[in-house]
Design brief:
Layout lengths: L1 H28 L3 H6 L5 H10 L6 H10 L24 H36 L3 H12 L2 H15 L9 E4 L4 E4 L5 H27 L2 H8 L4 H38 L5 H11 L2 H29 L1 H5 L1
Helix pairs in contact: 1-12, 5-8, 5-10, 6-8, 7-8, 7-10, 8-10, 10-11, 10-12, 11-12
């Protein structure tokens, strides 16, 4: 087990290093961060000052080392939480801004994943037992549509036509009454827009795996012993596909954090996505770089967690 955990950790670390490097080169290739920050009419002295603050006057390999230095928890004098730079627009550490917005993104992603699990897995089991042409085509349709496209469709149909809330967070502060008012209905449309695609994927995955298991001899033996349909489907079949589902769920959860960036902008949800679009629109390079790095770290960590859960859920993998 220790060897397996070490292997997973090393793979995750290598993936993060490669992703960090590609992200660094990509953002450097978009243009001069100092020029993007100051605009086209900036003077030479201001440009040189900003480039010196961002270490852009150094060779590329030194800039790369400075980027890694932002992750170091020890600055030579004391231990501290990595700040990942300071936002130009907020004049605050990037980690603090990310931590403030992350709970909203986490809430939206978990609600979307809960919807996907509650819809996709039971319907996938039913599709394996009683195939439906309509359900198959609907799942393929939603699987092909990105979350922000589904969000725009939901805004038009359920927002403009049916009068549901078009956006906003789950609570707002009334300065006159000095109290919080909660609006849980604002969570419905963004969670639905974000959860339909993973629900369709889970339906397809569960259906395919369950159809294979339903043809196994131990399922026929369970039928011959008189075991009821539902215990077979939700017991024997579901237990055997849990390793595959655990990996898929953690990968999709990481993808939901990324996909939420666009859905949040559509529904005016105050999460990390809104913060990212603000960084893009204002050319806030440290904020943009920090959000991207933390998103990569989160995605890599969830993938590693999926491998560990798959090994825990499948005794055959624990033996190997």
């Amino acid at each position: 087990m220790a060897r397996f955990l070490l292997k997973v950790f090393l793979q995750a670390a290598l993936t993060f290093v490669l992703s960090f490097t590609l992200l660094f080169l990509l953002l450097r290739g978009l243009g001069d961060p100092a020029q993007m920050l100051l605009g086209q009419r900036s003077d030479r002295i201001a440009l040189e000052t900003i480039r010196a603050q961002l270490h852009l006057d150094k060779p590329l390999w030194q800039q790369y080392l400075y980027a890694w230095a932002q992750w170091m928890p020890y600055d030579g004098e004391k231990w501290k939480l990595p700040q990942l730079g300071t936002s130009y627009q907020y004049a605050r550490p990037v980690v603090e801004l990310y931590a403030e917005r992350f709970p909203a993104t986490l809430l939206l992603s978990l609600c979307a994943m809960m919807f996907a699990v509650c819809m996709g897995i039971p319907l996938g089991l039913w599709q394996a037992y009683r195939p439906s042409f309509l359900l198959q085509r609907l799942s393929l349709l939603f699987l092909s549509l990105p979350g922000y496209v589904v969000g725009l469709l939901l805004l038009f149909v359920m927002g403009f036509q049916l009068g549901m809330p078009l956006g906003g967070y789950i609570y707002s502060y009334d300065p006159i009454a000095e109290r919080l008012s909660y609006h849980w209905e604002n969570l419905l449309l963004p969670a639905l827009a974000l959860g339909l695609r993973p629900a369709a994927h889970l339906l397809q995955l569960t259906s395919t795996e369950a159809q294979h298991i339903l043809q196994q001899d131990f399922i026929r033996s369970a039928h011959a012993r008189g075991k009821a349909f539902l215990p077979i489907l939700f017991g024997d079949v579901l237990r055997n596909i849990l390793p595959t589902l655990s990996v898929s769920l953690t990968q999709w959860l990481g993808g939901l954090f990324t996909g939420a960036l666009f859905v949040e902008e559509v529904f005016d949800w105050p999460g990390v996505g809104k913060l990212l679009f603000f960084a893009l629109s204002t050319s806030d390079y440290p904020l943009l770089m920090g959000i991207a790095q933390l998103s990569v770290l989160l995605f890599v960590g969830l993938n590693a967690l999926g491998e560990i859960l798959a090994r825990w859920a499948d005794p055959r993998l624990r033996v190997s």
